[in-house]
Design brief:
binds SN-glycerol-3-phosphate; binds calcium ion; alpha/beta; Jelly Rolls; 8-stranded antiparallel β-sheet; 2 domains
């Protein structure tokens, strides 16, 4: 069953006048070219071969593909078997049937068009103005400043592995995940409540690197132990604040209880972050479950509990977000297996990245679950980070930010080898700028809300040097 991909159907709810435009969403250069697998400018008189109308009425008219669905949904499908690709098109509303016109791109849509939607959508209000962009059940994003109110808008989605990044007029507006690593079934153009015309449809293969920057100036924002500057670390409260801050990943620390239940706990003992004492590995799940993990931080968090890994993953699965899971302690492969079993039981292998300071933990994880991407944490740089990464089969190399300053060129070396670089734990705009200049792909921070805001500040626009312009604190 693949109904759980990326999300399901289009969201028809609009933000309306309450949605303010995103502040300073970064523009970006046009992406570099790759192997083009679909190029369609509708210069013929009919629908392209092997394109299939699934809903609504579609025709080629005036060099554009025009789809109308009245108050319903119109879908045309094409393509199949893609894994890592960029799908882009231009589109504009020609006639609205009512006030709720929408249109967009569909990803992983079978030729029948039945059910399995993974799509980005532009909504328009009664005046034909784009107001929001959404993918289904997650919150719609406001349309960035500068997106055309009339005429064509450019839609683009870039799919790498299980991660999709959506763009509107070359501005990143949404990032979504799907749980399946299989090639997508097909693509679609979709319309609703309007007659919409499309042109310049392109599908291009791109390199697969799910954790490197996807042709975007933004870094991946990772909330360290949740948003641990605002809520008690490694709690559900911290996770919720991290999510609402806009962090894509929550970082945690996992240790086993005496009875082998994986819990979130950074330290070996519960002393610092709960009202109890003792080594977590000496306490039972019942004992840990009774601890107060919030009162040490602030009175508002009294009663907060130490979450199990299962609780954390269930929350991420149902409410959104991905997990950077740190194996903090594992005496043997069985301990790692206990953690991975939980990830699998919660059906979250597509949204978990496993990290550790200990290469042996990663070797065990790779043996047990080769489908899980791996990251190596480093206090100091290895002599040859690429060799170490290739030996361990890493997706990510995660150096301490200060350590990276000794040899920032290793970022390029790792990128050349197809390995992403995320730095930790960085909480100031000065250092975000510095590491952004190095080209890191992700930043782990205790201050995810501020980092998201910094991330949305324009960079490089109008720069003639080719180097990223420094971003300033909001
Ligand atoms: O994710 C990196 C960071 O969490 C590693 O340090 O001590 O906070 O687990 P620590
Ligand atoms: Ca950690």
């Amino acid at each position: 069953m693949r109904r759980d991909l990326l999300r399901s159907a289009f969201v028809l709810a609009t933000c309306g006048v309450l949605c303010s435009p995103a502040r300073g969403v970064a523009a970006e250069a046009r992406p570099a070219g790759g192997a083009v697998v679909v190029r369609e400018d509708f210069s013929g008189s009919g629908l392209p071969r092997q394109w299939r109308v699934v809903g609504g009425a579609w025709q080629v008219d005036g060099g554009r593909l025009v789809g109308g669905a009245g108050g319903g949904k119109g879908v045309v499908t094409f393509g199949a078997g893609l894994a890592d690709f960029r799908f882009e098109a231009r589109a504009r509303v020609e006639r609205r049937a009512g006030s709720g016109a929408w249109f967009g791109l569909g990803v992983d849509v079978p030729p029948t068009g039945a059910g399995r939607w993974t799509a980005g959508v532009v909504h328009t209000d009664g005046a034909g103005r784009p107001v929001s962009f959404g993918d289904g059940t997650s919150a719609a994003a406001p349309v960035p400043v500068g997106v055309a109110a009339r005429g064509d808008v450019r839609l683009r989605v870039e799919v790498r592995g299980q991660r999709a990044v959506w763009f509107l007029d070359d501005r990143q507006v949404l990032m979504t995940h799907r749980s399946s690593a299989e090639a997508v079934d097909g693509l679609a153009l979709v319309v609703g409540g309007a007659t919409v015309s499309f042109d310049d449809v392109r599908v291009t293969r791109v390199a697969s690197s799910a954790f490197q920057r996807a042709d975007t100036p933004r870094v991946t924002v990772v909330a360290h132990r949740g948003a641990s500057s605002l809520a008690p670390e490694n709690t559900m409260a911290a996770q919720e604040v991290g999510r609402r801050s806009g962090a894509e990943f929550i970082e945690n620390d996992v240790r086993l209880s005496r009875d082998r239940v994986p819990y979130l706990m950074h330290d070996a003992t519960v002393d610092r972050t709960t009202d109890g004492t003792g080594n977590i590995g000496a306490l039972s799940a019942a004992q840990i479950g009774a601890l107060d993990a919030g009162s040490w931080f602030a009175p508002a968090f009294v009663g907060e509990r130490v979450p199990t890994l299962a609780q954390q993953l269930a929350d991420l699965r149902t409410r959104g977000g991905s997990l950077l899971l740190e194996i903090k302690q594992a005496a043997g492969i069985e301990d790692v297996k206990t953690m991975i079993d939980v990830v699998r039981a919660e059906k979250m292998t597509g949204r978990v990245l496993v990290q550790s300071f200990d290469p042996q933990h990663l070797r065990w994880a790779r043996t047990l679950a080769p489908e899980l991407p791996l990251g190596l944490l480093r206090d100091t740089l290895d002599a040859d980070p690429v060799a170490v990464s290739e030996d361990l089969g890493l997706a990510l190399y995660l150096p301490n930010g200060t350590a990276l300053e000794a040899r920032p060129q290793v970022v390029d070396d790792l990128h050349q080898a197809g390995i992403g670089v995320w730095v930790w734990t960085v909480d100031t705009p000065e250092r975000w700028n510095r590491y952004d200049g190095y080209g890191v792909d992700g930043i782990i921070s205790n201050r995810p809300a501020e980092l998201v805001n910094w991330n949305n500040t324009p960079s490089g626009e109008g720069s003639t040097s080719g180097a990223p312009a420094p971003r300033t604190s909001p």
